[in-house]
């Protein structure tokens, strides 16, 4: 199939950017979206140009490195699919495809389609862990976890940290990412001792970078792992409880 | 690129009084919007139901207006309780607006100057959720007019203090006022359609057992309020009440 | 040629590790902050080591070329992690895990290391559970297990089909905690391009900021490489696009021996190649073989769609040839069997390059819901890529390069022969012999990072108390920086006519053809002739666009591919000199009458460790003899 691409080009973090058009001719329907970009890049290099920079790595939809706005949809218009798992058979011959980087003040563009998502690492560093040092942990089966809780925790933990939720949000809110991380740990017995401290720390760190949630639900639609916005409600509740509870008396739970 | 945990740009620890510190957080602001929203929704529902008395004639509704002033009966001086409620309501209204205003500013800042080239084709966000700030502004201005017209009487030449029945008819007999009222109530409908659902998310009321009922409740509540409120100008315009 | 000493402690195998920990020197807690340690890579091994060393009080600096530590390719591991917990009450034990791993590795691993791995496997599960890894649970709330290839017990812990992701997130979170506490300094989007040595020991690294192109030096008392494997030498593999051998290879060029480079694993269950534009192969978890049955048509010219082929015309060849292990035969065995089927022209799919993995029996027996609960995400992934619904038509799978057992030679302490330079996880060679069993890579990465290197590194560091690391303005660092910038400038200045990928693809074709599933003397010699010529062409005709002061993927890729040429040559040389078949290394000259791998325990029971002698020079071959005191050498049988 033959396509026309309109791609955001920006030669560095503080440089101005602009859209450029590229022809992508003779693309196989079996190719993935990123393989299509590979082919375009190969041709750009052959003709003496500078290829389009985009983030990608595992190409299995799990590492969360890739992610671009494709015709106004984060990761393209296939539900529950990361950019690398999107295939060209979802497009039609002659299509014009606009490819843009994620846009949010908390995720500035690094180069072309690459953005800086280190804010997400900062949120995890604020408290997205269970404080256990290596060694000295009890036998794994000493901490029974109800299967349903483990499953719900795993549903949230499936987050790949790609930031599509933030890209999709009209407010550039980081709620779905943060809520997923919190739900992963706050739903498990192991996560209880630090539950409320963690929630406050992560929420407030998140708010330093991103907007607020107005419950549109766009993030859930955009999420390549279809993580539910129910996690956001869970986070809100934990945050408020954290603010009102005297944890010295009540313990964390 | 270097990234280390101890970042110099990390904000200093918050030291404001507890309630103000709470209010600095976006999540808490949303919670406060939800709580104040519930108060306002309660008022909207009570207001609509009280006004239904107009269908029972001038005495009923005028008596209702008087009863409001006499709330608390012999236990409190006349109109004191009403004033307390008015102040509470005003406070809820003000804080709802302030939180909305500051969150909107923050969100615009978070989104940044460069927008997506392709207009977003929203998949989950609906018309109501995306127009909250506009429907909210319409409601705000309408409320000011509504007070001027029916509480203070400044925009209503035929206003007679205490004669609710007369005042409503005098107001809604004017076609432009009736149209304004209808438009404003449709905006209010959109606002509370998203608001009623959204407040559950904001306060963290989320449970598989009742989650889907949150949407039904939003639709049901909105329908009752909008139909009820719209009935007044329509009834007056059609001459059902005169 | 010298004989290498692995410094395996004396004593009975079940006491070696305990004894060694007692005998090793310690660094007292107050002194730990006087030490600088550099860790390269943030996969399971790197992140867990960085977190653990940071917790102990060392000053750790960790580098990753990803935008976040959590992106490392450990994240893509699907199936699970082994441990000898015996929760399933099916007769498992540390010794059995040890035995299975040595046998699975076709008796080419170091017994003492493998035993230690089995010993700490249980602690890993405890550690990860405490960290909040959402392992699969039984209804009673206890941990669930499943079985995996090469074992007859259920010892694999898993988190849906995303075990690697969850374990990596656990390690990453532990790392993030140390970063926040200030004990670990993290550099992201920063690639290590040189190991710096001085007086024969590792003193630091030279790195390049991938965003700004800035080259800088970092010094430390010890350097730990946790940089993964080199399967991308085949171009198409299950590795992530940016996985590379550069860090390990640069260490090799600075004197670290590279061990058993020809031991590569071809994983039997990948989605077959569908076109020449393809950039990578996608693995379908081995766990699928628990419920899927592998078959091909009995006759070579059977062109019917899978569902139209009646039972009697199907050949469930794994069940036929290996009745006791059946579809759960180890990876090397299953891969070669698939290859033979395709060579017999019984392959399926449009390019006749796959075999069927059929779930219809399991769906009939257990119901679609159960299969969906077990493998739902894998089935979805398969459907997204192939546009076929595996609930209705059998999956098509084919072997693909996956894991590399070879790597930097390390002793029992996981230190390379360069003092102060450690290699952990897939980057070293130590634990898997000639073939890795499923669910063992995660185990090894975390064992090395959480429970081995934090202890063994103290033994080396203790001697360097109160001695500052070499200053980065020392000439050793200056020379290394110049070497790095010179190399990058050279790549940018060639301005030839071929892209980096076209070279990489051609190299990959040679390697998969001549040094892939089956290797022959003739083929390897041909490869050894072609690779240097291709390498020379690369250095005179590659085109690397852009500049070195912005983000430049092509430049980073070119530097990596340059190192692959040198590695590829060594792999072929190693494969040529290993005159036997074992595990993933199958020399067609050495096979039994039934076509199984035939080892030569007389002459080949050793680790081949290669020493770099300079660009274009032949390597020196060193050997570490392998002795087997606890596992009797036997022809591996899974029949």
Tags for this entry?
heterotrimer; A: 253 residues; alpha+beta; Ubiquitin-like (UB roll); Fumarate Reductase Iron-sulfur Protein, Chain B, domain 2; five-stranded mixed beta sheet; two-stranded antiparallel sheet; 9 helices; B: 242 residues
Description:
The complex is a heterotrimer of chains A (253), B (242) and C (639). By secondary structure, chain A is of the alpha+beta class. Helix content of chain A is 36%, strand content 12%. Chain A is built from nine helices and seven strands. Chain A has helices spanning 33-46, 118-127, 147-157, 164-168, 175-186, 195-209, 218-222, 230-244, 247-250, and strands at 3-10, 17-24, 69-70, 73-74, 96-100, 109-111, 114-115. In chain A, the strands form two sheets. A five-stranded mixed beta sheet of chain A has the order 2-1-5-3-4. In chain A, strands 6-7 form a two-stranded antiparallel ribbon. The model of chain A has no long low-confidence stretch (mean pLDDT 95). By secondary structure, chain B is mostly helical. Helix content of chain B is 68%, strand content 1%. Chain B is built from nine helices and one strand, in the order βααααααααα. The radius of gyration of chain B is 22 Å and the shape is globular. Chain C is an alpha+beta fold. Chain C is built from 16 helices and 22 strands. Chain C has helices at residues 13-23, 29-32, 44-56, 94-104, 111-131, 163-181, 246-253, 317-321, 331-343, 360-366, 368-386, 441-461, 475-494, 500-515, 521-541, 553-577; strands at 36-40, 59-63, 81-82, 146-147, 154-157, 184-187, 190-198, 201-209, 215-219, 222-225, 258-259, 264-270, 293-297, 314-315, 355-358, 395-404, 407-408, 421-423, 498-499, 542-543, 606-611, 620-625. In chain C, the strands form six sheets. A five-stranded parallel beta sheet of chain C has the order 6-2-1-10-18, with helices on both faces. A five-stranded antiparallel beta sheet of chain C has the order 12-16-15-13-14. In chain C, strands 17-11-21-22 form a four-stranded antiparallel beta sheet. In chain C, β8 (201-209) and β9 form a beta hairpin. In chain C, α10 (360-366) packs antiparallel against α11, α14 runs antiparallel to α15 and α14 (500-515) packs parallel to α16 (553-577). Chain C starts with 12 loop residues before the first helix and ends in a 14-residue tail after the last strand. The relative contact order of chain C is 0.16. The chains are: A alpha+beta (253), B mainly alpha (242), C alpha+beta (639). Chains in contact: A-B, A-C, B-C. At the A-C interface, α1, α2 and α3 of A face α3, α5, α6, α11 and α12 of C. β1 of chain B pairs antiparallel with β6 (184-187) of chain C.
